[in-house]
Design brief:
This protein has 408 residues and is mainly α. The protein contains 26 helices and no strands. Helix 3 packs parallel to helix 5 and helix 16 runs parallel beside helix 18. It is globular and about 75 Å long. It starts with a helix and ends in a 20-residue tail after the last helix.
C-alpha cells in the first residue's frame, strides 16, 4: 500500500477514499506518511473507523485537522448514517487545537448533537424573525417581473390571492408549477393549473411539506395527485410508518427513490427494486441502506437482468461454486462484480486479471499474488503507454507458475 501511494498517488487516491476495509496496520502505514495530502485523504476516507480517524487529531498540519472537521465525503452523510465520523472526545480536541474550526463543524452532518448543543446553545445564534408581509407594490413588482426566476419566487406564501391567481396562468411552466405547490390550494385548485412534472424532471421540494410534523398535512401531501407534493412528502423525515409504506408503492419512481434516501426503515424489497430501477449516479448508495438485505441475494443468480445477477457477489452466504459460475457470465458487468470476490480460486482470479474487461476488479481480489502487484507497479509506465494507445494488455502470460499461491 505504501508503494502504491508513494509511486501512484494520483491513480490510487480515489480508491483510498472509498476503500471498504482498513486494518490498523494499513491505517498506520498512511497515518505516518510524510505527505500531508495523503493524511488529508486518510482523514476523509469513507470506511475508516472513527477510532482510527481519531488518531490524526494531533497531526501538525492544519489541512489534516480541517479534513477531520469536515468529515467523510458529504454525499454519504445521509439521514441514516450509522455513526459519527469521530468520537466526541476527538471533536472536542479539535476545537482545543483549532478553535476556528467551529465554522467548519457547523456544516458537518457528522457532529454529535450533544456537542453541537454545547457549542451553539438554543437561541444562539438567534433564530431569524418571521418575514414581514409583502407590501402591495413589492408583490406587484415580483408577480409582473420580466425575469422568470423572479416570478417563481413570487409564489411565496405572503403573496396576495389575486396575484396567485394571475401567476397560476403565467406563460412560464416553471411559474405555474411553483404556484401549483402552494400550501393553501385544494386538490381541485391544483388540478386546474396547467403544470407538468415528468419522470426525469428535477424539481425543488416544497419546504412546507418536507418539514411538517403535522400528520394531517403529511397525509394530504402523501396522497395528493400532485407528484411534486408526493415527492416532497417522501423527503420528510417525520413520516408515520403507514405513510412510508404507502409511498413505497407510489407509481412515480422519484417518490420511491427519495423515500429510500430519507428513511432508514423502508422495506428491504423496496430498496432492492429501487436500486435495480435507478439510473442515477448515486444509486450505489442504496446498497448501504440500513434496510438492504444482502443475505439471500443468491436467489438472483438466474435473473434475466445482469444488474440483478451481479448483486449475488454481495451475498455473504453465496456458495463459491455459484460465484465461480457467475465469473463466467456472458455479461461483462456480472463477471466484473465477481472478479473481486475472495471466494474465487486464485487461478480464476489470474484469468480474470488477464481480461481487460475485468482486470481492474480482479486487481482488488485478495487472492491476487503480491508479486503480481509489484510487477504491475514496476511495469506501470509501460502499461500506461499501452492503455493510451488502446493496445490490448496481456497480463497472464507475464506471470510464472511460482507466483501462484501453493494452493490452487
Amino acid at each position: 500500500m505504501r508503494r502504491l501511494v508513494d509511486e501512484q498517488l494520483k491513480e490510487a487516491g480515489y480508491a483510498l477514499t472509498f476503500r471498504k476495509e482498513w486494518t490498523d496496520a494499513q491505517f498506520e502505514a498512511l497515518a505516518t506518511h510524510p505527505d500531508g495530502k495523503v493524511r488529508e485523504m486518510l482523514a476523509q476516507a469513507v470506511h475508516v473507523t472513527p477510532e482510527q480517524r481519531a488518531r490524526l487529531v494531533e497531526d501538525p498540519e492544519p489541512g489534516v485537522l480541517r479534513a477531520l472537521a469536515e468529515g467523510p465525503d458529504w454525499f454519504l452523510a445521509w439521514t441514516w448514517a450509522p455513526q459519527p465520523a469521530l468520537p466526541t472526545w476527538a471533536y472536542e480536541r479539535l476545537l482545543e487545537r483549532k478553535p476556528r474550526l467551529e465554522l467548519v463543524l457547523a456544516d458537518c452532518p457528522w457532529l454529535p448533537q450533544d456537542l453541537r448543543a454545547r457549542l451553539w446553545p438554543p437561541g444562539s445564534p438567534p433564530a431569524p424573525a418571521d418575514e414581514p408581509p409583502l407590501e402591495r407594490r413589492e408583490a406587484e413588482a415580483q408577480a409582473g417581473a420580466d425575469n422568470e426566476s423572479t416570478r417563481v419566487a413570487a409564489a411565496d406564501p405572503r403573496l396576495p390571492a389575486d396575484l396567485v391567481a394571475r401567476l397560476a396562468v403565467d406563460p412560464s411552466p416553471a411559474v405555474r408549477l411553483a404556484v401549483s405547490m402552494r400550501p393553501e390550494l385544494s386538490e381541485e385548485q391544483r388540478a386546474a393549473i396547467d403544470y407538468h412534472v415528468g419522470r426525469d424532471d428535477r424539481i425543488r421540494p416544497a419546504r412546507w411539506a418536507t418539514d411538517t410534523r403535522d400528520p394531517e398535512i403529511q397525509r394530504r401531501c402523501g396522497f395528493s395527485a400532485h407528484i411534486g407534493l408526493r415527492r416532497s412528502a417522501a423527503c420528510n423525515p417525520h413520516l408515520t410508518p403507514d405513510l412510508i409504506a404507502a409511498l413505497a408503492t407510489d407509481d412515480d419512481f422519484a417518490v420511491r427513490l427519495l423515500l429510500c434516501e430519507h428513511h432508514p426503515n423502508v422495506a428491504s424489497e423496496t430498496v432492492l427494486n429501487t436500486y435495480l430501477e435507478a439510473t442515477t449516479m448515486t444509486r450505489g448508495r442504496l446498497l448501504h441502506h440500513p434496510s438492504f438485505q444482502r443475505v439471500g441475494l443468491a436467489r438472483l443468480a438466474d435473473s434475466p437482468d445482469p444488474q440483478a445477477r451481479a448483486l449475488v457477489a454481495l451475498d455473504p452466504e453465496a456458495a463459491p461454486k455459484l460465484i465461480e459460475r457467475l465469473s463466467n457470465d456472458p455479461h461483462p458487468m456480472v463477471r466484473e462484480w465477481m472478479a473481486g470476490d475472495p471466494r474465487l480460486s486464485p487461478r480464476r482470479v489470474l484469468e480474470l486479471f488477464d481480461d481487460p474487461a475485468t482486470a481492474g476488479a480482479a486487481a482488488a481480489n485478495p487472492h491476487l499474488p503480491v508479486p503480481v502487484m509489484h510487477s504491475v507497479l514496476t511495469d506501470a509506465a509501460t502499461l500506461a503507454d499501452e492503455v493510451i494507445e488502446d493496445k490490448p494488455t496481456v497480463y497472464l502470460g507475464r506471470w510464472s507458475p511460482d507466483q501462484l499461491p501453493d494452493e490452487d
